[in-house]
Amino acid sequence: MGRPIRTRRQATLASLAAELGVSRTTVSNAYNRPDQLSPELRRRVLETARRLGYPGPDPVARSLRTRKAGAVGLLLTENLSYAFRDPAAIGVLEGLALACEDAGVGLHLVPASPGREDVAAVHRAGVDGFVVYSVPDDDPHLAAVLQRPVPTVIVDQPRVEGVDRVGPDDAAAITGMANHLVELGHRQIGVLCMRLARERNDDFASVQRQREAHFHVQRTRLAALAKAFEAVGVDWASVPVVERFDHTVDDGASAARQLLDAYPQVTALVCTSDILALGALAEADRRGLRVPAELTVTGFDGIAEAERHGLTTVHQPVLDKGKAAGKLLLASAEHGAPRVITLPTELKVRSTSAPPRTAEQMWFGP
Predict the structure, then answer these.
(1) CA 54, CA 65: separation in Å to the nearest integer?
(2) CA 365 to mean position of chain CA atoms
(3) Secondary structure (DSSP) of 11-70
(4) For residues 171 and 226, is the Cβ–Cβ distance under 8 A?
(5) Sign of the CA dihedral 84, 133, 346, 171?
(6) DSSP H or E stretch at residue 164
(7) Strand partners, 341
């Protein structure tokens, strides 16, 4: 038999303190409160720690002692990859990360895929507070977050009484877009919207489904569109609204295809996100429809890809949204009433919107 391999016992805070001839508090301060030590003493502690193989204070033990995790939780009811794929989500994530960097805390992603009822990830998350990003009002993960005794900030949706929130004025923003289309002369419109509830519906959405939507951002935008077009004599019940559960360019294209196959007379597609609008542009190109000569397409969000395509859209500052949510959550001052930050939006009229073609133009060409 060979000689047994001996491994050196890992150094501890106590053994490091004994080696240096200092107190355990001094060693701890070298890592957690460096301003309490002289630069020379801190350098000596860290160099000795490296020599002895001391890995630093146990973060779990420290969090138990201080009751602080040193991290913010971001709850999004999507697959984890969505945070790194969707341009608007990326902007919010970057803004939140910047706020965390400024405060010297970490960021813990707590994904909850659509349809998943298990809320264990919320209960397990070692965080000092949550930023909840765009979830339905009946989501069980949101309920689990609100049960925890930590501060919470909601980004976009839902509105929860007594909880801080950050987001744009969706009704005012989409009303500006509706007025733009009305002034151009559009009355035959169709709408492509994001999911309205937790159950999948890749189909036309009835007026009742629109009004009962659990995603209040979509509900608000649809209601504002209805109000604006009904004011000029359009019966909203006759306006086709196609819903997509997933949020990709391909889903926007398939939604546009479904709507235009059933309602070829539509002169404008109003999309509640730029991603869906980019899909609609792709479908228009596939059909040989000229935009905006034969079909107007509009979006919402103001992502970089929309600008590159000349998309008429509503721009919202997604990076500022994430940053504001993080600062609101990390603000140390006590507050009473819930705080609401309403972010500005701007209508960007570009090259995908124009007056509808007349019957004569459609027959004889431009």
Answers:
(1) 20
(2) 43
(3) P-HHHHHHHHTS-HHHHHHHHH-GGGS-HHHHHHHHHHHHHHT---S-HHHHHHHHS--S
(4) no
(5) positive
(6) strand 164-168
(7) 166
SS in 3 state form for 72-102? EEEEECCCCCHHHHCHHHHHHHHHHHHHHHH
What would the 3-class secondary structure string for 269-329 be?
A: EEECCHHHHHHHHHHHHHHCCCCCCCCEEECCECCHHHHHCCCEEEECCHHHHHHHHHHHH
Distances (CA, A) of 223 to 53, 220, 337: 63, 5, 28
- Cα 86 to Cα 93, 104, 299: the distances in Å are 10, 26, 15
Strand 268-271 to 164-168 pairing: unpaired
Condensed to tens digits (0 to 9), the pLDDT of residues 151-202 reads: 999 999 999 999 999 999 999 999 999 999 999 999 999 999 999 999 999 9
Instruction: Mention every residue, 6+ apart, whose C-beta is less than 8 A from residue 320.
Output: 95, 343
Element (H, E) at 220: helix 216-230
CA atoms in the 13 A half-sphere facing the CB of 11 = 21
Residues 275-310 have pLDDT tens digits of: 999 999 999 999 999 999 999 999 999 999 999 999
Tracing tokens 């059933």 back to the chain, one arrives at 262
Residue 364 has a pLDDT of: 40
- For residue 192, give Cα distances in angstroms to 123, 274, 289, 318: 36, 10, 17, 21
DSSP label at residue 345: -
Beta pairing class for 130-133 and 241-244:
unpaired
SS3 content of the chain, % helix, strand, coil (to 5): 45, 15, 40
Q: Please report which helix (H) or strand (E) contains residue 166, including its range.
A: strand 164-168
Q: Which tokens hold the place of 26? A: 């001094």
345 and 308 Cβ atoms separated by less than 8 Å:
no
Between 156 and 56, the higher pLDDT residue = 156
Can you say how many angstroms the Cα of residue 14 is from the centroid of all Cα atoms in its chain?
A: 45
pLDDT at 334 over 70: no
pLDDT for the residue numbered 57: 62
Angle at 345 between CA 339 and CA 350, to 5 degrees: 170
